[in-house]
Amino acid sequence: MTRSKVERLRFELNGIESWAPLDPRHTNWPVVYVLDGPNSIPGTARESLDDVYVGESRNAVGRMRQHLASPEKQHLTTLRVVLDERFNKSVCLDLESYLIRMLAGDGAYCVLNRNDGITEADYYEREKYRESFRDVFEQLRNDGVFTRTIPEIENSDLFKLSPFKALTQDQAIAVEDILEGFFTDLQAETTSTIVIQGDPGTGKTVVAIYLLKLLVDIATTAPADDLDSDSLFADFFTEGYRELLADLKIGIVVPQQSLRKSIEKVFRKTPGLWPRMVMTPFDVGRSDGYYDLLIVDETHRLNLRANQPSGVLNRDFRLINERLFGMDDATKTQLDWIRAKSRHQIFLLDAAQSVRPADLAPETVDSLVREAKGLHRHYRLASQMRVKAGSDYVAYIRRMLEGRPDARDEVLSDFGDYDLRLFDSLGDMQREIRERENERGLARLVAGYAWPWRSKTDKSAFDIEVDGLRLRWNSTATDWIASPGSIEEVGSIHTVQGYDLNYAGVIVGPDLRYDPEHGRLIVDRTSYFDKKGKENNPLLGKTYSDDDLLRFIRNIYAVLLTRGIWGTYVYVCDPALREYLRRFIPSRAVDSSGH
């Protein structure tokens, strides 16, 4: 197969005019190009990053003349053109989106491209062409464009949470429909409530970030800017839409601390997005302003009026209620704050990922979903973007944990090459996780909160002592997965919810057990050490039973068991539960050499 060639030249008119006659493909052939140069706005938070722009064209020279005439591109200094005699329009669009995603994930540049419709479009012999993309990447990396390898980029939060991710078909349909409805509501000057539901791995957070970036790009794109009419959302960059977004105040609310910090990191490197757009529910409640649109990720993790982790937050909850509603109404939740402080809301949720009593009650979430359905503003994401076991895997895990297998579950389901294993030895599982870490990266041990966190205050202490092993919980609460030494630690639900792993080694602690006499899963309250995870709520008169606690613990393990992209390994402390799970998870013996 012919190798793609990358030609480099100065981004200036004389050089481009001299380059034009050297090859007919410079003026009449599909190409992909990369432009880069120093940041155009010195003194900004992004001044340490160079700007980069990726494009495709059938006339490279003509397109460069247009860019040189554009004030937004004149500061760029270097042009690299990817030439290949096999290229066609579809290949170039795919390579263009691939390079945009990889540059955003690399984090060394500010990517200037708009977010107007990157999708996973198929075309003839796509897989063969995609094999050559890695060669293009390496040529550009050798020329200084990329600073990290492909695996390093693909394992990073900047890549996984990038606003330039390619959308699946159901994501693209939902985004287009949401935009149409949102602009209709803006024009009619009405309010709106939109709900997006999806199982773990369907890309709810990706859609939230994508939508925010897309709206910012529509709002800031001048009418004279050149638009690709073939792009998915090109129609929204035409006259009228920009004006509807003028001066709109938009933000994204992320209840989880670790995920929020990761999204802030992405926004810090993305033109048009700023870390201040990423807020806690408390930030919204305390703010003086009023928001035109709030996008709420992990809506099910918004809080009731419940005891907060600190006295300051308890005080703030009361003050916000008094400020917004005239009194500290105990029935008001952070969901009520969001609605009181914004005209339009987009809620992304999965009620089965609620893991604490302080989270919104199931009936509140159900009511929100019914409301959105009644307004025809409800969207469900179905395509599995994370777990390579297919779309049935999440439902399979949830049925397994609920003790309600159907007939097909009695025979182990076929998840293809997905590496699902049950281990009888925690040491064997740890060794396998370390091997996967060496091979692919992002392999971590995670566990239910079935051991106290002694090492939080005593760094020499061990937290988890099981099967002859002594392990420690995560040493940091934010960005733990990417932190140094995390391969030697065990992550809790609060460090991994919302994140991807390549391989997850899940330790099912003694908090979850199996009662063989009655054929059901049960909870051991004394072995569950998340104080906020089993705390009663006297303010609301709520006492949480063992059945309530079982729901939260099941949800926790369902989340942990759906983190792994390529595989999930499981070790179970309770012998009866291990035997029960053996019906669903293959047991594979490991010999003395570790294989």
TrEMBL record:
Pfam families assigned to the protein according to its UniProt record, in alphabetical order: SLFN-g3_helicase
UniProt cross-references to InterPro entries, sorted A to Z: AAA+_ATPase (IPR003593), P-loop_NTPase (IPR027417), SLFN_3-like_DNA/RNA_helicase (IPR018647)
Domain AAA+ ATPase span(s) in chain numbering: 190-375
SMART domains: AAA (SM00382)
Name assigned to this protein: AAA+ ATPase domain-containing protein
Naturally occurring in which organism (per UniProt): Diaminobutyricimonas aerilata
